[in-house]
Write a structure and sequence with these properties.
Layout lengths: L2 E2 L1 E4 L3 H12 L4 E5 L6 H6 L1 H19 L15 H25 L2 E5 L2 E5 L2 E4 L2 E5 L2 E3 L3 E3 L12 E2 L1 H4 L8 E5 L3 H12 L3 E6 L10 H13 L2 E5 L1 E9 L2 E8 L4 E7 L1 E4 L3 E3 L6 H4 L22 E3 L10 H15 L13 E3 L4 E6 L2 H7 L3 E7 L4 H5 L6 E7 L5 E8 L2 H13 L4 H5 L10 H9 L8
Parallel strand pairs: 1-7, 2-3, 2-8, 3-4, 8-19, 10-17, 11-12, 11-17, 12-13
Antiparallel strand pairs: 5-6, 6-7, 9-18, 14-15, 15-16, 20-21, 21-24, 22-23, 23-24
Helix pairs in contact: 1-9, 3-4, 3-6
Length: 462
């Protein structure tokens, strides 16, 4: 029986990237994946299909709201939902097929099925047992559930079902005001659905910079989403009108309900470790179901590593990818590196939201003296020219030495603009370093420079 240098369990962003990098480094590698296609949740039923629908729905919004404003005269556009879903699927197929090609290119064996660890160095898939010197657990996460809500993926759905709805609903209730709920809520609101978001907490996007969070909520409200905050959903029942969502207003114990066609349960995600055989090797889960790892991402069992959503930290594809590369480097005899303090968080609404580093709330809690440099996109010529001048760049720097501590952006292309700040944080740059760097004109990135200037003597265009 052939012995692999590495078997990766899970073919999502962390797993497939780890396998490819290990193959590039000359290791013999296999990746165990039970789906019919590679890419995990992200490429199949998560990040990629949702971004495809966000793009399509935004184009529809532009056609109905802004074409006439820029002199494009056309008949009123209509939506072919079936074709939109086909476009989404073609995007999935192109990406998952690309991963399969990269496996072949880098000599990674794809073992189809569900993997179970029998003991260190042994993985069972179906009736076959495979030997390996190292194992990487990269099984990702699954949608969290709510005990009082029964999911059927037809009218009471997770993000998976929401991406496959038979038709665009007239109305939708989203339980949870986190990233996934707001992104999918934006899609359907632009396509004409009346969207109501129910959130247990008193604000949306928990953990985000509070000023950005409140600004995003105001903008989404203008786009048609309505919010009921501080409410606890107690049950969802079906009747001849569809679904009835029952909830309590937490601070008053008042009970209310709302009728809707579709309920989207979006209360976060939880690590997926079912059937992995962790008990066979003595690996325990922490109180939130995660696998604890050391700085080298190795579990307490030598030769068994874990990366991505099954480990503590942000549940983000790019975090998993970086950890996958780091583990591959470690196993190949090198030194892996992931700076978990410089991992951007992004929401792909319109406008986009992106953040890295500390929030104001965190700095206050830690007692750090800081200064704020803020610049509105209303002062950015490029943003104004395309009707996307809502939002701002907010930069946080140490009050004494000007070292960057964090950055929060709500505005056009925020997901790309934040990368400049990530690099600056990685190299320990100051706000002045960004302010003194020439930025092209006209670009959205000038707003980042202006925010850096605002940490000093002040911005030019505000």
């Amino acid at each position: 029986m052939a012995v692999y240098d590495l078997i990766v369990i899970g073919g999502g962003p962390g797993g497939y990237v780890c396998a490819i990098r290990a193959g590039q480094l000359g290791l013999s590698v296999a990746c165990v994946e039970s789906r019919e296609t590679l890419g995990g949740t992200c490429l199949n039923v998560g990040c990629i299909p949702s971004k495809a629908l966000l793009h399509a729905s935004h184009l529809y919004h532009e056609a109905t709201q802004n074409f006439a404003r820029v002199g494009i005269v056309a008949e009123s556009p209509s939506i072919d939902w079936e074709k939109m879903l086909a476009y989404k699927q073609s995007t999935i197929d192109a990406n998952t097929g690309g991963i399969e090609f990269l496996f072949k290119k880098n000599r990674v064996d794809w073992i189809k099925g569900k993997g179970q660890i029998l003991e260190p160095g042994k993985v069972q898939v179906g009736d076959q047992t495979y030997q390996t010197k190292n194992i990487v657990i990269a099984t990702g996460s699954e949608s969290s559930t709510l005990g009082s809500v029964e999911i059927d993926e037809q009218t009471v759905v997770t993000s998976t079902g929401a991406l496959e709805l038979a038709k665009i609903p007239e109305n939708m209730v989203i339980i949870g005001a986190g990233v996934i709920g707001l992104e999918l809520g934006s899609v359907f609101a632009w396509l004409g659905t009346k969207v109501t978001v129910l959130e247990y907490l008193d604000g949306i996007t928990p953990g985000m910079d509070l000023e950005v969070s409140k600004t995003l909520q105001r903008i989404l409200k203008r786009q048609g989403l309505s919010f009921k905050l501080g409410v606890e959903v107690t049950s969802v029942s079906k009747d001849d009108k569809g679904n009835k969502v029952n909830y309590e207003i937490r601070k008053s114990d008042k009970k209310e309900s709302i009728q809707t066609d579709i309920v989207l349960l979006s209360t976060g995600r939880r690590p997926y470790t079912e059937g992995l055989g962790l008990e066979n090797v003595g690996i325990d889960l922490n109180k939130v179901g995660q696998i604890e790892v050391g700085p080298d991402l190795q579990t307490k069992v030598e030769g068994i590593y874990a990366i991505g959503d099954v480990t503590p930290g942000l549940m983000l594809a790019h975090k998993a990818e970086d950890e996958g590369v780091a583990v591959a480097e470690e196993i190949a005899g090198g030194k892996g590196y992931v700076n978990h303090d410089v991992i951007p968080a992004i929401i792909y609404t319109q406008p986009e939201v992106a953040a890295v580093g500390k929030t104001e709330e965190q700095l206050k809690e830690e007692g750090v003296a800081y200064k704020v440099g803020k610049f509105p996109f209303q002062g950015n010529a490029r943003a104004k020219s395309i009707f996307q001048a809502s939002g701002f760049v907010k930069m946080l720097a140490d009050k004494e030495n000007d070292k960057l501590l964090g950055c929060h952006i709500i505005g056009p292309a925020a997901s790309d603009l934040i990368q400049e700040v990530c690099l600056a944080l990685e190299f320990g740059a100051s706000a002045e370093d960004i302010a003194l760097t020439c930025h092209g004109h006209p670009t959205y990135s000038e707003a980042v420079k202006e925010a850096a200037l605002a940490c000093g003597d002040g911005p030019i265009h505000a």
